[in-house]
Amino acid sequence: VLVDTEVVARAPKRQLVGGIGDALATWFEARTVRESCSTTVVGGLPSRTGTALAKLCCEILLADGPAACAAVEAKATTPALERVVEANNLLSGLGFESGGLAVAHAVHNGISEIEGSHCHIHGEKVAFGLLTQLVLEGKPQSEIDEIYRYQQAVGLPICLAQVGVDANSDEQLNHIAERSVIPGESSHNEPFPVSTAAVSAALRAADQWGRRLL
Ligand SMILES: [Zn+2]
């Protein structure tokens, strides 16, 4: 993988932020796949290496993401930006291949079927999928809150309206939830059965949590 950070620094900030959204989910999905002993996208059990790289990816993003975004706003190449580019491109790719996917990407696939979401990029929709996953998994409030505040700080979505979904539309929410749990979807890599009703409830709760922070 060869990335010219001078080019990244001059690219639109949204591209970097979207990359952060996709890469941030890598660790949380890899952790879930490990907990449930599910298989990765390439068919094997997650490797210790993949899980470790996914963890490192997340640590770098949490530490350097806001500074990297500021660097891109200034069209400047800085060490923080270099580290985030490494996390977004190298670590996320390796962590995803050997770490696996879970609800975050399944919800992304559901959101992508809503017309209003079409102007939103992959990483933005994955970011809201990650929040939905953490709520669905019942992770500690402190962990969920940290990810909400981080996503808000770097400019990632924290509510459904920010990915073009009408949170008051039962039709849209049910469609996303149903699409998220079709057979073969990565939502079934959770360590517990995932139903349409559970995803729908998590979508609503995740949206409400985010709206309280706006
Ligand atoms: Zn992705």
From TrEMBL:
Q: Does this entry carry the keyword Metal-binding?
A: yes
User: Which PROSITE patterns does the UniProt record give?
Assistant: ADH_IRON_1
Keyword NADP, does the record have it? Answer: no
Q: Which domain of life is it from?
A: Bacteria
UniProt keywords, alphabetically: Metal-binding, NAD, Oxidoreductase
A single GO molecular-function term is: glycerol dehydrogenase (NAD+) activity
Cite the InterPro entries for this sequence. Answer: ADH_Fe_CS, Glycerol_DH
E.C. number, please? 1.1.1.6
Annotated family: Belongs to the iron-containing alcohol dehydrogenase family.
Q: What is this protein called?
A: Glycerol dehydrogenase
**Organism of this sequence:** Synechococcus lacustris str. Tous
Taxonomy-wise, where does this protein's organism fall, top ranks first? Bacteria, Bacillati, Cyanobacteriota, Cyanophyceae, Synechococcales
Gene symbol here is gldA
